[in-house]
Amino acid sequence: MRRRVEEKIFKFLMIISLIFVFGSLLLILATVFLKGLSSLSLNILLKTPKGGYYLGREGGILNAILGSLVLGISSTFLSFLLSLPIAFYLNNFLKRGSNFALFVRFSLDVLWGIPSIVYGAFGFTIMVLIGLKTSLLAGIITVSFLILPIMARSMDEVLKMIPSELKEASYALGANKIETSIKVVMRQAFPGILTAVIVSFGRGIGDAASVLFTAGFTDNLPTSLFKPVATLPLAIFFQISTPFPEVQKRGYASAFILTLIVLLISIISRILSKRFSRYRVR
Amino acid sequence: MNWRTHISVRNLSVWYGKTQVIKNVSVDIPEKKITAIIGPSGCGKTTFLKSLNRLIDLQEDVKISGSILVDGEDIYSPEIDVNNLRKKIGLLFQKPQVLPMSIYDNVAYGPRIHGIRNKRKLDEIVEHYLKEASLWEEVKDKLHSPAYKLSLGQQQRLCLARGLAVEPEIILADEPTSALDPISAEKIEKSLSELKNRYTIIIVSHILRQAKRLADYVIFLYLGNLVEHGPAEEFFTNPKEPKTRAYIDGKYIEER
After folding, report:
1. How far, in Å, CA of B215 to CA of A224, rounded?
2. Which pick of A63, A118, A253, B202 has the fewest CB atoms within 10 Å?
3. What is the pTM of this model?
4. What is the pLDDT along chain A (282 residues), one digit of tens a residue?
């Protein structure tokens, strides 16, 4: 009797948590959607801010949409180039229980926890040091630093789950570690690696603090690595913090667009992941 | 007996950390025969097998002493290329471990790694070794479907084909039938006995009847010690050691 009551209580708690989390998600989506609905138009998607945009005049946020996409995709790519080798080195080239691996994982965890404004400040210091102005390039580098630990550690956890027997089967055929990593482990871990990339991309494209001093902001479209670039999080901030309701609504519309971008990329990656994991051993 | 020695193990000891799992084992393994390694669980059979193709290198905190000579060459000498060694010595796992690719690619994986690129040559290899593992008839129409969709028994035969495709001289098999149903197990056994004319086969088994059916030579390990080894006939009918007799009779072996 007591055990059955216990089970009921715990089941109840789980359902409450689920409703809480899922409800928040829906609430966020609904809020940005409803508040921004009246400003959602092709104009906001396809035009750059004209003079007086932040006072309620004509224009759109194409500069920020494109800027965020370029910045997000480039830094995800840069970070991917570094994360994948890190994760493979930790899992396939070091022995399990290696102290070095322990140290690297700990460092990555610490880096993961560092607030993005600190990355922004760090990026800024580096820029001053090497004489780089606020620019797309500086933004890409800083955001790459921000998402590197997230991506590397997520991939690391994915690769940890690959059964050692699978790797041994490849080694037993005379394959070396690189061949085994690329031809066997990569295929098996593909969905997990893709998830790691998407999560990092979402974090990178949505972060405001790290791009504040590094990428800067502009009303122009991104055309050069060495010029400032607009990003959606900052565009949202600038619009919602104006005193004009008309502009604030556009801010919510921008937030909705940002959320939609992340959502779309997640969905596309799910589909890709399904397509490419046909041969995965289950 | 007029058997040529293929693998010669001399004073092999293996430690995991401070635990010694193989204790000073010396034995000669005959060429183109089936050698069965028997003994209760945890007696070091798998460790012994994995030290023969140096898969044991991948374990952490492992120490090895003594030597293993394959064709007179010490496989633990620094000049040995481990990947070439493993090409020469195939391994069949306890649980079939297919690679995350199609049936065709599983067999072609090894040859491709060792430099065969020609499509027609690969087709030939795949067909030949799938036939050799008597799997061809069952899979010839679905060569490009995922390997993991095969039944366990078929997967194990696929693993055998995959191992043979890199043209090893030696096949190690670690309880290759223990995860399979009796009919699949029989097929694997049949394949192994057909292959022994061309390959040196070493099979780890804890099934005595299987060892009796297959083996030409038997090695009995107990708690890391080599208790007895000899030609199968003699080993099963006239064991010299009391421990061997006890094990064959299915009795509990008393600690000294």
Report:
1. 73
2. A118
3. 0.85
4. 788 899 999 999 999 999 999 999 899 989 989 998 888 888 888 888 888 888 888 888 999 999 999 999 999 999 999 999 999 999 988 887 789 999 999 999 999 999 999 999 999 999 999 999 999 999 999 999 999 999 999 999 999 999 989 999 999 999 999 999 999 999 999 999 999 999 999 999 999 999 999 999 999 999 999 999 999 999 999 999 999 998 999 999 999 999 999 999 999 998 988 888 888 887
Q: Which of A96, A174, A281 faces B110 most closely, judged by CB atoms?
A: A174
Q: What is the C-alpha separation between A259 and A89, in angstroms, rounded? A: 34
Asked, for residue B122, whether it belongs to a domain, the answer is no
- Amino acid identity of residue A233, one-letter, is P
What CATH number did the domain enclosing B175 receive?
A: 3.40.50.300
Answer yes or no: do B109 and A170 touch at CB < 8 A. Answer: yes
Structural domain count, chain B: 1
Q: Is B160 on the interface with A (CB under 8 A)?
A: no
Structure tokens, B160: 């055998």
Assigned domain for B225 exists: yes
How distant is the Cα of B91 from the closest Cα of chain A, in angstroms?
A: 6
Domain range for B190 is 5-98+168-248
**Residue B186 — φ and ψ, nearest 5°?**
-65, -40
Nearest Cβ partner of A281 from B55, B60, B148? Answer: B148
Kindly identify which residue of chain B lies nearest to residue A167, measuring between CA atoms.
B99
Q: Which residue, among B136, B52, B56, has the nearest Cα to B89 in the 3D structure?
A: B52
Q: Which of A168, A172, A187 sits opposite B100 (nearest CB)?
A: A187
B239 domain-assigned: yes
B112: three-class secondary structure by DSSP? helix
Q: What pLDDT is stored for residue B256 in this prediction?
A: 46
CA geometry: angle at A105 spanning A103 and A109, to 5°? 115
Q: Is residue B9 part of a domain?
A: yes
Nearby residues of B131 by Cβ (< 8 Å), 6 or more positions away: none
Q: Contact at 8 Å (CB) between A185 and A88?
A: yes
Q: Which residues contact B195 (CB under 8 A, 6 or more apart)?
A: B132, B164, B171, B201
- In 3-state terms chain B splits into helix, strand, coil percentages (rounded to 5) of 40, 25, 35
Chain B residue numbers touching A188 (CB-CB < 8 A): 100
B99 and chain A: CB distance < 8 Å anywhere? yes
